[in-house]
Amino acid sequence: MAIAFPRFVCSESSTIEEAIMATSPSSIPSPPPPPVFLTQDELKQIAAYKAVEFVESGMVLGLGTGSTAKYAVERIGELLHQGKLKDIVGIPTSKQTQEQALSLGIPLSDLDSHPIVDFAIDGADEVDPYLNLVKGRGGSLLREKMIEGASRKFVVIVDESKMVPFLGGSRLAMPVEIVPFCWKFTAERLQSLFEDAGCVAKLRTCKDSDKPFVTDNANFIVELYFEKDIGDLNAASDSILRLPGVVEHGMFLNMATTVIIAGELGVTVKNK
After folding, report:
1. Of 20, 24, 142, 242, which alpha carbon lies 20 to 30 A from 214's?
2. CA 206: distance to chain centroid?
3. SS3 assignment, position 222
4. Average pLDDT over residues 42-61
């Protein structure tokens, strides 16, 4: 389903001479207005707001993490403040989202109190043609997978740049959360698993230093970079999870029920 974006063009008042020229048979038609190009942040916001349209009062909501999900959390808080949503309970997927939700007045809980989540909204780093995902480049993949795996409906919001022919197709990181103990040993084993795909494993470090990035769960992240398609995703998932020291990986397979994609030509909604 595609929804076209409206195009807004500001008109300027014409002079009398221009008006006369416009009625002259020899006048040249004015060129069409230039196209409106939306930024990546604007596309993210459009997708997020579209997803929130499906939220209903009384729901238990999984609140995602990242640059796209923050727009959805922001919109939910706005609708609660306006009284258009009521009795919402949010379950945040990270400390970052928890802080944002609390600042917006969104009531929060956890899976212990609400083991079944009605509706979860989150972004993704990659989406393949079968709606499989790579998530977790923000470092929250474990909590995201726990909460979104407990959701009746999991709606993913992305801009069109996140669509890939296969997982790993962006050649950007596929994150794996690991325990800090002997992390180099674990990273080397992860890399050897996908040697045929040209895999390179790197420890994620903090942006402002060479210190290891630490997740909300006090773990490290190893980022896997692939040159080729890794093949059977379920087999790859099993191989990763069998390694001692691995906590969770960033492949979210057969979990998304809906993906909302914002692009220059409109919003596309894909359902499983």
Report:
1. 242
2. 21
3. strand
4. 96
Catalytic site residue from 126, 144, 177, 223: 144
Mapping DSSP to helix (H, G, I), strand (E, B) and coil, where does residue 205 land? strand
Bridge-based pairing state of the strands 246-249 and 60-63: unpaired
Q: What pLDDT shows up at residue 264?
A: 84
Find out whether 157 and 72 touch, Cβ atoms under 8 Å.
yes
C-alpha distances (whole Å) from 216 to each of 107, 110, 142, 157, 219 are 21, 15, 9, 23, 7
CA distance 113 to 267: 35
State how beta strands 89-92 and 2-3 pair: unpaired
Looking at residue 8, its pLDDT comes to 35
- Read off the tokens for 74: 């922001």
* pLDDT tens by residue, 68-109: 999 999 999 999 999 999 999 999 999 999 999 999 999 999
What would the two tokens of residue 229 be? 């398609």
User: What CA–CA distance (Å, rounded) separates 261 from 75?
Assistant: 18
Q: Is 160 a catalytic residue?
A: no
**Strand locations in the chain (E):** 2-3, 60-63, 89-92, 117-122, 126-127, 133-134, 151-159, 174-178, 200-203, 220-225, 246-249, 251-252, 258-263, 266-271
Distances (CA, A) of 185 to 37, 158, 190, 235, 243: 47, 34, 9, 22, 11
Listed in sequence order, the residues at least 6 apart from 53 whose beta carbon sits closer than 8 Å to its beta carbon are none
